[in-house]
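B., you asked whether I could sanity-check this one before it goes into the benchmark set. Here's the sequence:
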Amino acid sequence: MTASAIGPELAGVRLGPIEHRWSTRDAILYSLGIGAVLPRDLAFVNERCGPRVEPTFALTAITPMLPLLVRRLGIDLHRLLHAGQRLTLERPLGPDGAASVTRPIAGDDAKRGAAVLECVDV
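And here's what the prediction gave me:
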Protein backbone atom coordinates (compact mmCIF):
# COMPACT_ATOMS: atom_id res chain seq x y z
CA MET A 1 0.00 0.00 0.00
CA THR A 2 1.15 3.48 -0.63
CA ALA A 3 1.14 5.71 2.41
CA SER A 4 -0.57 8.57 0.62
CA ALA A 5 -3.39 6.45 -0.79
CA ILE A 6 -5.06 5.74 2.55
CA GLY A 7 -5.87 8.39 5.11
CA PRO A 8 -8.67 10.40 6.69
CA GLU A 9 -9.37 12.18 3.40
CA LEU A 10 -10.91 8.96 2.08
CA ALA A 11 -13.93 9.26 4.38
CA GLY A 12 -16.90 9.99 2.17
CA VAL A 13 -15.30 8.85 -1.10
CA ARG A 14 -17.91 6.91 -3.08
CA LEU A 15 -17.10 4.16 -5.56
CA GLY A 16 -19.67 3.17 -8.15
CA PRO A 17 -22.46 2.89 -8.79
CA ILE A 18 -22.33 -0.41 -10.61
CA GLU A 19 -25.34 -2.31 -11.88
CA HIS A 20 -25.67 -5.92 -10.76
CA ARG A 21 -28.20 -8.33 -12.30
CA TRP A 22 -28.89 -11.92 -11.39
CA SER A 23 -31.10 -14.73 -12.61
CA THR A 24 -32.74 -17.78 -11.08
CA ARG A 25 -29.86 -19.81 -12.50
CA ASP A 26 -27.33 -17.61 -10.68
CA ALA A 27 -29.19 -18.02 -7.38
CA ILE A 28 -29.38 -21.81 -7.79
CA LEU A 29 -25.69 -22.12 -8.73
CA TYR A 30 -24.76 -19.99 -5.71
CA SER A 31 -26.76 -22.28 -3.41
CA LEU A 32 -25.07 -25.34 -4.87
CA GLY A 33 -21.70 -23.64 -4.62
CA ILE A 34 -22.06 -23.02 -0.90
CA GLY A 35 -23.14 -26.59 -0.23
CA ALA A 36 -26.88 -26.97 -0.76
CA VAL A 37 -27.86 -30.63 -0.48
CA LEU A 38 -31.04 -32.52 -1.23
CA PRO A 39 -33.60 -32.98 0.17
CA ARG A 40 -32.92 -30.44 2.91
CA ASP A 41 -32.27 -27.51 0.55
CA LEU A 42 -34.75 -28.33 -2.21
CA ALA A 43 -36.37 -24.88 -1.92
CA PHE A 44 -33.01 -23.28 -2.86
CA VAL A 45 -32.26 -25.38 -5.94
CA ASN A 46 -35.64 -26.20 -7.52
CA GLU A 47 -37.24 -23.63 -9.83
CA ARG A 48 -40.70 -25.00 -9.00
CA CYS A 49 -40.16 -24.02 -5.37
CA GLY A 50 -39.36 -20.40 -6.14
CA PRO A 51 -36.48 -20.85 -5.64
CA ARG A 52 -35.65 -19.32 -2.28
CA VAL A 53 -32.46 -17.27 -2.36
CA GLU A 54 -29.73 -17.63 0.24
CA PRO A 55 -29.38 -14.37 2.20
CA THR A 56 -25.62 -14.28 1.61
CA PHE A 57 -26.23 -14.26 -2.15
CA ALA A 58 -26.62 -10.47 -1.73
CA LEU A 59 -22.85 -10.28 -1.19
CA THR A 60 -22.25 -11.26 -4.83
CA ALA A 61 -23.41 -7.76 -5.79
CA ILE A 62 -20.38 -6.16 -4.12
CA THR A 63 -17.74 -8.46 -5.64
CA PRO A 64 -17.22 -6.20 -8.70
CA MET A 65 -16.44 -3.33 -6.29
CA LEU A 66 -13.12 -4.88 -5.21
CA PRO A 67 -11.20 -3.93 -8.39
CA LEU A 68 -12.53 -0.36 -8.10
CA LEU A 69 -11.38 -0.15 -4.49
CA VAL A 70 -7.96 -1.63 -5.28
CA ARG A 71 -7.41 0.78 -8.19
CA ARG A 72 -8.65 3.85 -6.29
CA LEU A 73 -6.42 3.19 -3.28
CA GLY A 74 -3.40 1.75 -5.08
CA ILE A 75 -3.51 -1.33 -2.83
CA ASP A 76 -1.23 -4.29 -3.44
CA LEU A 77 -3.89 -7.00 -3.69
CA HIS A 78 -1.48 -9.59 -2.26
CA ARG A 79 -1.32 -7.59 0.98
CA LEU A 80 -5.06 -7.08 1.32
CA LEU A 81 -6.79 -8.78 4.24
CA HIS A 82 -10.56 -9.07 4.42
CA ALA A 83 -11.23 -8.68 8.15
CA GLY A 84 -14.98 -9.13 8.21
CA GLN A 85 -18.34 -8.13 6.91
CA ARG A 86 -21.93 -7.74 8.03
CA LEU A 87 -25.08 -8.09 6.00
CA THR A 88 -28.51 -6.65 6.71
CA LEU A 89 -31.42 -7.46 4.42
CA GLU A 90 -34.70 -5.62 4.66
CA ARG A 91 -36.50 -8.44 2.84
CA PRO A 92 -35.59 -11.70 1.07
CA LEU A 93 -34.08 -11.40 -2.39
CA GLY A 94 -36.05 -12.62 -5.37
CA PRO A 95 -34.61 -15.30 -7.65
CA ASP A 96 -34.30 -12.73 -10.47
CA GLY A 97 -33.37 -9.13 -9.94
CA ALA A 98 -31.12 -6.15 -10.28
CA ALA A 99 -29.42 -3.73 -7.93
CA SER A 100 -27.38 -0.57 -8.17
CA VAL A 101 -24.44 -0.78 -5.77
CA THR A 102 -22.42 2.13 -4.39
CA ARG A 103 -19.51 1.73 -1.97
CA PRO A 104 -18.94 4.74 0.27
CA ILE A 105 -15.82 4.63 2.41
CA ALA A 106 -16.98 5.37 5.95
CA GLY A 107 -13.51 5.97 7.37
CA ASP A 108 -10.14 4.49 8.14
CA ASP A 109 -8.21 3.55 11.23
CA ALA A 110 -4.51 2.82 11.65
CA LYS A 111 -3.97 -0.43 13.54
CA ARG A 112 -0.67 -2.25 14.06
CA GLY A 113 1.03 -0.51 11.18
CA ALA A 114 -1.78 -1.25 8.71
CA ALA A 115 -4.76 0.71 7.46
CA VAL A 116 -8.23 -0.56 8.23
CA LEU A 117 -10.94 0.73 5.91
CA GLU A 118 -14.62 0.58 6.70
CA CYS A 119 -16.81 0.44 3.60
CA VAL A 120 -20.58 0.48 3.53
CA ASP A 121 -22.28 -1.00 0.49
CA VAL A 122 -25.63 0.41 -0.46
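One thing to flag: The two ends are 26 Å apart (CA to CA). Otherwise nothing jumped out at me.
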